[in-house]
Amino acid sequence: MRNGWRYRVNIAIRTLAGSVGAYGVAALAAMALSRTLPMPRVEAVTIATLIAYVVAPGVTIWAFLARGPWLALMAVVIVALLLGGVGWIAGPPA
Description:
Blueprint: H1 2-36, H2 41-65, H3 69-90
């Protein structure tokens, strides 16, 4: 019985990191890239959004390939904080 509970928590945490975390990381990646790419605003936003479409599945795959569920969740949170910091430091788009 305990094995079943631990397995369900493991999958729940990985699913949370792979769905909500992937959405957050993709949005923050688009924000950070659109503010830092050296091109006109419309092109930067378009390119950043296209890159974010690749980042989201990558984060989801990472969440299920990580060694443990807490490592997966921690890695997603750290990447989100780093991308949020880059976007915040870069300031508003040009």
